[in-house]
Every structure is written in structure tokens, then in C-alpha cells.
TrEMBL record:
<dbReference type="Pfam" id="PF00005">
    <property type="entry name" value="ABC_tran"/>
</dbReference>
<keyword id="KW-0067">ATP-binding</keyword>
<keyword id="KW-0547">Nucleotide-binding</keyword>
<dbReference type="InterPro" id="IPR003593">
    <property type="entry name" value="AAA+_ATPase"/>
</dbReference>
<protein>
    <submittedName>
        <fullName>Iron complex transport system ATP-binding protein</fullName>
    </submittedName>
</protein>
<dbReference type="InterPro" id="IPR027417">
    <property type="entry name" value="P-loop_NTPase"/>
</dbReference>
<dbReference type="GO" id="GO:0005524">
    <property type="term" value="F:ATP binding"/>
</dbReference>
<dbReference type="InterPro" id="IPR003439">
    <property type="entry name" value="ABC_transporter-like_ATP-bd"/>
</dbReference>
<dbReference type="GO" id="GO:0016887">
    <property type="term" value="F:ATP hydrolysis activity"/>
</dbReference>
<dbReference type="InterPro" id="IPR017871">
    <property type="entry name" value="ABC_transporter-like_CS"/>
</dbReference>
<feature type="domain" description="ABC transporter">
    <location>
        <begin position="7"/>
        <end position="241"/>
    </location>
</feature>
Length: 270
């Protein structure tokens, strides 16, 4: 089981290029939770994810990671929390196994070689993401989806409490998308916590406990998926008419262009 922890963002804001990319965002993630960050492109999800990961310094508010009631930073923070970026580096010269083992660096001394525990953690993480058979392959020889799963395995090998994933399903086929989200739920059941940037609202509704719907850097709504995925809210944020149909835990969402835009699109066909 993971340690008792809280990843807390209090009224966080971030400013770049003369404008606010995130404003007054408040969020708490604890053991057993899968929290989805959703919204249109450019709404601030990736920026908020990087703020939570400690990769950006807030212009306002604060982000902290509490483990067993104590704030932690630096190397200790890296042992408890990991981040999976949106872009997929080729990592030339590294094998998949070596890249995943990099996730164990925070758990060792500066010049300490990896031990049996590190190798076991890396192998377990690679098995979870279905890339154990790729351990000896060079990362730059892998497909985008395979590299994505290797990066996720590295994060699983690293973090003991929480993982932040920025659009982790973007390069994955349907099977691997479902396997990944099911794995997050399994690990959440063991006490970990996750923040996931997703553009697939139906997937977010199915797998996430809580959602933050972002609109131009602000939190338009936060709460359980049925409270956030309301037609009126979605229409306001996405600028599209929305129909939402809940069937138990499953959600079906249909968006429609405004009539004049749809007519223009049809008229433009030749």
C-alpha cells in the first residue's frame, strides 16, 4: 500500500506571455483517486498538470505534496510523485529497460548502482504496461505508442504515491487505452493517486472519480463526472450543443455544430 498522502493545489495561477494560462485552480488528490483534467485545447490542462508535478513555479497560490502529514520536496518528492509528459522523446541510444530503470534514480544514492529491488520494480512496471518484452529494444526503434507505454512504465517504477499523466492515451490504440485506465484504477485501489489529462470525455466519465473541467485557464466545474458533464456546462465550455446520456457508470456524449456552421461545412464540400 502507498503511504498516506495529499497532493494539494490552492488557488494556483500561472502566467506566461503576458496572459494567465491557469487562474485560481484548487485541487486535492489523495489515495485511491483518479482525477481527470478535461476541457478544450488550450484550456490549461497541461499547464496545471506541470504545476502539480512541480515543473512550473506558480505565479499565485501554492502546490504541495504531503506524505504522512509532512510536506516533502526535492529528492524525496521525486520518490513519491512522477510525471508523464505529453510529447514522446525518442531517447536515442537507450534501451527501453534502461529508460524505465531511470525512474529508480531518486531511490538510490548519487553513485549507487541499481540493485535487485530497482530491477524488480522496473520489471513489474514494464509488465503492467505490456512492454517487458521490449526491454532490450532501443527506444528510438519503437513506435510512438510503444514509447508512450515505456514512459508510463518509468513513472510506475518511480512513484510510490502519485503519478500525473498528460494525455497518456493519445498515442495508444483502443486496447492499450483500456488496459492503461484499468491499471490506474487497480493501482488506485492499492492506495496510489492519479491526475490524468484526457480529451475523451466518455473515457474520463468511465474511469475517473473526479473531474476538473477547465475553460480558458479557469475551473468551470469540479466534482464527480455526473455533476461536471452536464449539457449546459459542456455547451458553454466547448461552444457546441451537447447531449449527455448516462447508462449506469457509462456515459455517451454527442456534440453538434451550431446550425450555421454545419450548413457552411456542407456548403464547402465540392
Amino acid at each position: 500500500m502507498a503511504a498516506r498522502f495529499e497532493l494539494v493545489a490552492e488557488q494556483v495561477g500561472y502566467r506566461a506571455g503576458g496572459r494567465w494560462l491557469v487562474q485560481d485552480a484548487t485541487l486535492t488528490v489523495g489515495p485511491g483517486q483518479v482525477v481527470g483534467l478535461v476541457g478544450p485545447n488550450g484550456a490549461g490542462q497541461s499547464t496545471l498538470a506541470r504545476l502539480l508535478a512541480g515543473l512550473l513555479r506558480p505565479a499565485s497560490g501554492a502546490v504541495c505534496l504531503l506524505v504522512e502529514g509532512r510536506r516533502i520536496d526535492g529528492r524525496r518528492r521525486a520518490r513519491e510523485l512522477a510525471y508523464v509528459q505529453q510529447s514522446i522523446p525518442e531517447a536515442p541510444g537507450f534501451t527501453a529497460g534502461a529508460l524505465v530503470l531511470m525512474g529508480r534514480y531518486p531511490h538510490r544514492g548519487p553513485f549507487e548502482p541499481e540493485g535487485a529491488e530497482d530491477r524488480a520494480a522496473a520489471a513489474r512496471a514494464m509488465a503492467w504496461t505490456g512492454v517487458l518484452g521490449l526491454a532490450g529494444r532501443r527506444v528510438d526503434s519503437l513506435s510512438g505508442g510503444e514509447r508512450q507505454r515505456v514512459l508510463i512504465a518509468r513513472a510506475f517504477a518511480q512513484a510510490r504515491c502519485a503519478v500525473i499523466l498528460d494525455e497518456p492515451t493519445a498515442s495508444l490504440d483502443v486496447r492499450h487505452q483500456l488496459e492503461l485506465m484499468a491499471r490506474l484504477r487497480m493501482l488506485a485501489g492499492e492506495g496510489m493517486g492519479f491526475v490524468v489529462v484526457l480529451h475523451d470525455l466518455e473515457m474520463a466519465a468511465r474511469w475517473c472519480d473526479q473531474l476538473l473541467l477547465l475553460d480558458r485557464g479557469r475551473v468551470a466545474a469540479a466534482g464527480p463526472p455526473p455533476e461536471v458533464l452536464q449539457p449546459e456546462l459542456l455547451a458553454q465550455v466547448y461552444g457546441l450543443a451537447a447531449r449527455v446520456d448516462w447508462q449506469g457508470a457509462e456515459c455517451r456524449i454527442a456534440f453538434e455544430l451550431p446550425m450555421f456552421e454545419a450548413a457552411g461545412a456542407k456548403g464547402g464540400r465540392r
